[in-house]
Design goal:
mainly alpha; 0% strand
Length: 49
């Protein structure tokens, strides 16, 4: 059974994975979404300490 990282790598190299990556990259360009992601990551980092 392939490892999780191998399965992810295979998916990202598949046509469906390329479509998903393009969709996510488009959403990531929006400044509001970037700020929301930064806030989420900051909260997650502060909880781990």
């Amino acid at each position: 059974m392939p490892s999780l990282t191998e399965r992810i790598r295979r998916f990202l190299n598949s046509p469906q994975g390329r479509q998903a990556r393009a969709r996510v990259e488009g959403v990531a360009r929006d400044p509001r979404n970037r700020e929301r992601a930064r806030g989420l990551l900051a909260r997650l980092r502060s909880r781990r300490r």
